[in-house]
Every structure is written in structure tokens, then in C-alpha cells.
């Protein structure tokens, strides 16, 4: 939790007891997501080790056991990835709803900045985790296909060797199951990637809107200043015209009197 909370800690000095209480439940939700992320990271490491082990084994029985463990890991990753996606969406909704609870939690407040900062930190970690999965997915598929290709060549060379044929069949079945599981898991991560990128676009849109608002406000301020200056100039010109008319009328009266 320290890495995600380090930046928001700068805000904590500005929070009162109510603000800290408001964030306590939020951090509980974040902690659950963090635990799931760490477990997925550990499972990805285990998948990598199992893949390396599968490349060196020549026993169909051992290979089947490795395949079952790989599938078990991927099922667990799939379940946890779906939970993370759901919880991250809930946190987004909670952040928006929290702004309406009190003026103290409005957009840009210390509480809101803390929630947004931590949520974005989760997204960065999630994005890194998805990149790790994608790299591992490509490596597993590549290794299994290359291994199957090499063993098919050996099968032709040692035609009729039952154990080798059995091993190749086991590898082929393992590859099909692993591909199916990886494809399903990949789709979930793609959905999560869209969630991350969409939120990033929204953040960019907010920044652009704020910048535009500043321009409009600045432009409006300049316009008001210009209008006030013109108004002052108009008033000054009115005074001078009035004085000029009085002088002119005085001259005319003097001329007529003479």
C-alpha cells in the first residue's frame, strides 16, 4: 500500500477527522484490489516457471500435471481479473458520488485529490500487469508451438516410438487447452485495458476543458476590462463635449449681445 499511498500522504495533513474517516472505507476497497493484483502477479510468475518446466519434460504424465496446474492458475487469474475490473468500476462511481456528499469532498478538494490519485495509481499498476501478461502469453504460445514442431520432427525420425507419440499428443492437447484459456483471459485484460485507456481519455478531456475554461475566463476578463475602459473613455468624451458646447454657447450669446 505504501507505493500507492505515498503521494496522497501529502494531502493527509490537510484533512480533518471527517475527511480521514471518509477515506478509510475507500482505502479498504483499494487494499482488496491491491491484494488481488499481487496474487495475479505471483500467479504470472508461477505460469512462467511452469512453462519453463514443460519445455524440459519428456513425460506425458508429468506434462499433463503441468498442464492442469497452468489451467488452474489461469482460471484463478481470470476470476481475480474480473473482480478487479468490477471493483475498479465501483471505485470510479464511488469517487463521483462522494463529491456530492459534501462541499468538503467536492472536485479538487484534498479528499477528492487523494481518491483520484490513488485510483490512477491502481490503473498504472494494472496497466503494467497487463503488459506483463501479454508478454508471457506470447512467450507461452511461441514456446509450445516451437516445442510441438520440434517433437513432430523427432516423431518422423523415430517413427513408431509409442512414448514419443503419446508425449506429442499430450503436448498438442495441452496447447489447445492453454490457447483457449489464454484467449479468454486475454479478452478480460483487453476489456480492462479499455477501462484504463477510457479513464485516461476522460482525464485528458478534463484537463483540456479546464484549460479552455481558463482561456474563456481570461478572455472574458480582458473583454470586461476593455469594455470598462471604453466606458470610462466614453464618459470622459461626454464631459469634454459638454464643456465644449457650453463654451460655444457662451461665445454665441456674447456675439448676439454685441
Automatic annotation (TrEMBL):
The chain crosses the membrane at residues 237-257. One of its GO terms (molecular function) is SNARE binding. GO terms for cellular component: endomembrane system; plasma membrane; SNARE complex. Keywords: Acetylation, Coiled coil, Membrane, Protein transport, Transmembrane, Transmembrane helix, Transport. One of its GO terms (biological process) is vesicle fusion. Gene3D superfamilies: 1.20.5.110, 1.20.58.70. Residues 165-227 form the T-SNARE coiled-coil homology domain. InterPro entries: SNARE (IPR010989), Syntaxin (IPR045242), Syntaxin/epimorphin_CS (IPR006012), Syntaxin_N (IPR006011), T_SNARE_dom (IPR000727). Pfam families: Syntaxin. Signal peptide: none annotated. SUPFAM superfamilies: t-snare proteins. The keyword Aminoacyl-tRNA synthetase does not apply. The keyword Transport applies. SMART domains: SynN, t_SNARE. It comes from the Eukaryota. Belongs to the syntaxin family. This is t-SNARE coiled-coil homology domain-containing protein. It comes from Dovyalis caffra.
Amino acid at each position: 500500500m505504501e507505493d500507492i499511498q505515498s503521494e496522497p500522504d501529502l494531502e493527509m495533513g490537510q484533512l480533518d477527522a471527517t475527511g480521514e474517516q471518509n477515506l478509510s472505507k475507500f482505502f479498504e476497497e483499494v487494499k482488496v484490489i491491491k491484494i488481488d493484483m499481487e496474487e495475479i502477479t505471483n500467479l504470472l510468475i508461477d505460469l512462467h516457471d511452469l512453462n519453463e518446466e514443460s519445455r524440459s519434460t519428456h513425460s506425458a504424465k508429468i506434462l499433463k500435471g503441468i498442464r492442469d496446474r497452468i489451467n488452474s492458475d489461469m482460471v484463478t487469474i481470470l476470476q481475480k481479473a474480473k473482480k478487479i475490473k468490477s471493483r475498479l468500476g465501483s471505485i470510479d462511481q464511488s469517487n463521483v458520488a462522494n463529491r456530492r456528499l459534501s462541499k468538503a469532498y467536492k472536485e479538487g478538494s484534498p479528499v477528492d485529490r487523494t481518491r483520484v490519485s490513488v485510483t490512477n495509481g491502481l490503473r498504472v499498476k494494472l496497466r503494467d500487469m497487463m503488459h506483463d501478461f501479454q508478454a508471457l502469453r506470447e512467450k507461452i504460445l511461441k514456446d509450445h508451438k516451437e516445442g510441438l514442431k520440434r517433437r513432430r520432427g523427432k516423431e518422423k525420425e523415430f517413427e513408431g516410438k509409442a512414448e514419443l507419440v503419446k508425449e506429442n499428443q499430450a503436448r498438442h492437447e495441452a496447447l489447445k487447452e492453454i490457447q483457449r484459456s489464454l484467449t479468454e483471459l486475454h479478452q478480460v485484460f483487453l476489456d480492462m485495458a479499455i477501462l484504463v485507456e477510457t479513464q485516461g481519455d476522460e482525464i485528458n478531456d478534463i484537463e483540456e476543458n479546464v484549460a479552455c475554461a481558463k482561456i474563456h475566463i481570461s478572455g472574458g476578463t480582458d473583454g470586461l476590462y476593455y469594455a470598462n475602459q471604453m466606458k470610462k473613455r466614453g464618459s470622459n468624451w461626454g464631459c469634454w463635449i459638454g464643456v465644449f458646447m457650453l463654451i460655444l454657447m457662451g461665445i454665441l450669446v456674447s456675439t448676439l449681445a454685441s
